[in-house]
Amino acid sequence: MYRQVYRLQRHSAIQIQCLIRGKFGRLRAMRIRHEKASLKLQTAFRRFVAMKAYNLLRYGALTAQRLERGRRARNLFVVMKRNACSVSLQAWWRMMRLNLAYRGLRRATIALQCKYRVTVARRALRELKLEARDLG
User: pTM for this one?
Assistant: First the structure.
């Protein structure tokens, strides 16, 4: 009889220990699941904050690059326009200089032709006068 009571008490103690260990194990598993979930939430939130800061910084850098490229393009346009104006001015000056040289050469050619004709005419006149003297 004592043996039976002992076995019953021992079996009851083992059952209680088993229930309590199961309860504690479930509580521990639930705590681990909650820690994992909170860790995932914290990670996602940190990622969100980091991405927001990165995108803000990236947008600022892109804006600065865009403004700098625009300024350079405008400056380049001004320089190219100035160069185009100076090229057309240089071309006009070359044209005027060559035109003046051409007109000077043309005047000199006409003057030379005129002088030659005058010389030929004087020679012809002199010959005519000599012929008139001989006849007269």
Answer: 0.48
